[in-house]
User: Fold this.
Amino acid sequence: MDPMAFFLLVAECDADFRETLREMTGAVRAALPIDLEVQEATSASETRVTLQERRPDALLLDWNVTAEGTVPFVQELQGLAPGIRIMVMLPEAAGEYRRAVWAAGACAGMPRDRLDAECLATAICIMQRAKMRETALRSRVRELCPATAEVL
Assistant:
């Protein structure tokens, strides 16, 4: 596994906003010294399948994919892929859900209408650094305690 690789799944049901997100992730790819792979999902069911089959490092989830069902959906996804980092893009009208999505297991509830490439790059950079540290820690634990290798 390349320590500088990062796989982001983007769940967005609106074709126009998906294009905007493609531009943003392209800018992130150009700004960060990581191998950023991006895959798109256009529905909740496609998100579930991709999460289980491909195991991305992070999910950028638009609130509009499941709307009021976002909180239980985030909880479900955490069960399907423990440790997945989920960022939920919230519209202004759903701002009161910020704490609820965080409590459900999301890393962030970001304002959908104010998301920009710099904010996304920062979030991905932080998650990539955490991934690198976790990988190093797992390696060290396996080295010190070989019996735990199956658990990790």
Remarks:
- The first strand starts at residue 5 and ends at 11.
- Helices lie at 15-31, 44-54, 70-80, 98-104, 117-144.
- The beta strands are 5-11, 35-41, 58-62, 85-90, 108-111.
- The mean pLDDT is 90.
